[in-house]
């Protein structure tokens, strides 16, 4: 990537005009390049470009937009390896993860929305009154201002950009300032695919200046935000001042409920994969395993054993299961949670120490299992966002489900059982936007993703996301052609009766 050119505005890379920020590979601690951040003026340029592009893009037929998105998928496919390398260098996640999960998942999202663009419809037209025909138009909103986090930079760019532009909107996306690389490639691929200049713009800046300028911009019709609950509330506050629409995908603290009839091996494997995927820096990661008492010891022992077998190391090595976390500062934050839990009397069954020696330059933290924590302690209640799983026992099914719902969050959850009735009950009673039964983590472009409670509202992916990125308009056509409409008699009859008196 060219040094210092990290904005993509109106169909080309441009330099920002803000302060500089070193971009660091968190697995090595070495600087990759220097970013010049976007200022509020750069954000304004990007919003203007998106506003200019809107009339052209929104008036294309769904078929034309669909064709453009199919070409975008092909462009991204041709840059798949480059995207995987950039994603790994900027996040520290394993190259295997970038190649096999992030890149193909994002391209699948483009292909889904290429198809979905042609199925954007309101309900069928009909005569709901004898004298009128009603129909529903689904219309794009205008310029969307989107803000994304650093944990899945490419997938978050796809989740934000695709439903917005498939529905005919134009977009300004602010990726995390730590991970701008793949969003910029995405925008270049859009231009190469023939998507008009200004439809997809990227501003790389920090949250305080560029992020707040984007949310507060008068020409931004909606702010679509993915990130922490605290910043999401700030976004809502700024957008609320001008009554603008928001879409919030926020933090999570997913419960993982294991009933006493479950397959312990499947549950233990699911808990390890589900808690350490992406270094645990996943909003849906399994973080709280509630295990019915008869299975607790067997489950905890097997999870600890599997965690000890996870190969942590150089993200570029094919054998690496767990790369580094996003930064040394974040690694220290994760370690702080575990240290405080230990001091409060919880047991660290495996992991729980910042590795020394050859590891010190990178932001590594090992898979960690904690037992004996109190339900109301911070390690159980707060988002750690690292490869840390807490396991706690429960007695009755009622208690297990109650504990699952006992945090402010509600993004994702899983229940492990071979009893259909227990699974169905868990799926109905757990307050979360996604409940898996006998699995944890898989997502599909066709299915909605979004939160309950403090995890936000609005859906990413799937046809449901169009509801977020469109306005629904009722068009009502009078069909009798008469000058005196029947409903007007409530007005005119009263008037003529008065005159007669
Ligand atoms: P963060 O909230 O710190 O930052 C997210 C984005 O907001 C970044 O681009 C940042 O620059 C920007 N930002 C920061 N302050 C801002 C402000 N005042 N105004 C506007 N923008 C601002 O989150 P993070 O640390 O980058 O990501 C981790 C968080 O994201 C976790 O809480 C995780 O659960 C959440 N997340 C949620 C989902 C989901 O789908 N619900 C998906 C991925 C990550």
CATH topology of the largest domain: Aldehyde Dehydrogenase, Chain A, domain 1
- What is the number of helices? 16
CATH architecture of the largest domain: 3-Layer(aba) Sandwich
Q: Which structural class do you get from the secondary structure elements? A: alpha/beta
In which range does the helix fraction lie?
A: 25-40%
CA(first)-CA(last) distance = 85 Å
Low-confidence stretches: none
What small-molecule ligands were found? nicotinamide-adenine-dinucleotide
Instruction: Please outline the major beta sheet.
Output: 7 strands, mixed
Give the overall pLDDT as a whole number: 96
Q: Count of DSSP E strands?
A: 22
Structural summary, described in words:
There is one protein chain. With 501 residues, this protein is α/β, with parallel strands linked by helices. It folds into two domains: 256 residues, Aldehyde Dehydrogenase, Chain A, domain 1; 184 residues, 3-Layer(aba) Sandwich (Aldehyde Dehydrogenase, Chain A, domain 2). It has 16 helices and 22 strands. It has a seven-stranded mixed β-sheet with strand order 14-15-16-13-12-18-19, with helices on both faces. It has a six-stranded mixed β-sheet with strand order 9-8-7-10-11-21, sandwiched between helices. α9 crosses α10. The chain is globular, with a radius of gyration of 25 Å. The chain starts with 6 loop residues before the first strand and ends with a helix. The mean pLDDT is 96. Nicotinamide-adenine-dinucleotide binds next to α7 and α8. Keywords: Oxidoreductase. Its EC number is 1.2.1.8. This is Betaine-aldehyde dehydrogenase. Belongs to the aldehyde dehydrogenase family.
